[in-house]
């Protein structure tokens, strides 16, 4: 934001135009992000409350195995991230990851 202000000054923009330009740019960006994150959060909470997140977690654990849960989470993040413009994917995947109990990795020195 500070850089935007100085670029506006250096190009000869009037002070009121600089402020209006910064407000419009930030407002449009934050509005889009807030809508996507809000919808992703609502969908994730609905899945958690309905038991769908538990079902997805169990299915992925059965398919990938308990030792490969990290690959299952990567798969979920990839699939969910595609249709949600990669913004709400991590929020949505958080509700599923809460249902997967991931054991801490074994130390490689204890083998």
Report on this structure:
With 111 residues, this protein is an all-alpha fold. Helices cover 74% and strands 0% of the residues. It contains five helices and no strands. α3 packs across α4 (69-81) and α4 (69-81) packs antiparallel against α5. The radius of gyration is 21 Å and the shape is elongated. The protein starts with a helix and ends in a 12-residue tail after the last helix.
Descriptive keywords:
111 residues, mainly alpha, 74% helix, 0% strand
Q: Secondary-structure blueprint of this entry?
A:
Elements: H1 2-10, H2 15-50, H3 52-64, H4 69-81, H5 89-99
Helix pairs in contact: 1-2, 2-5, 3-4, 3-5, 4-5
β-strand percent reads under 5%
Distance between the termini: 52 Å
Radius of gyration: 21 Å
Low-confidence stretches: none
**Helix count from the secondary structure assignment:** 5
Topology as a string of helices (H) and strands (E): HHHHH
User: How many beta strands in the DSSP annotation?
Assistant: 0
Mean pLDDT: 76
Largest sheet: none
> What is the helix content?
over 70%
Q: Which geometry do the CA atoms define?
A: elongated
The structural class is mainly alpha
């Amino acid at each position: 934001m500070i850089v935007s202000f100085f670029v506006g000054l250096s190009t000869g923009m009037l002070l009121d135009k600089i402020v209006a330009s910064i407000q419009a740019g930030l407002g449009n960006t934050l509005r889009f992000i807030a809508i996507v994150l809000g919808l992703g959060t609502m969908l994730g909470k609905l899945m958690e409350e309905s038991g769908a997140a538990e079902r997805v977690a169990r299915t992925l654990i059965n398919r990938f195995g308990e030792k490969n849960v990290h690959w299952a989470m990567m798969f979920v993040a990839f699939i969910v991230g595609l249709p949600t413009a990669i913004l709400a994917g991590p929020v949505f995947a958080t509700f599923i990851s809460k249902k997967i109990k991931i054991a801490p990795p074994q130390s490689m020195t204890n083998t």
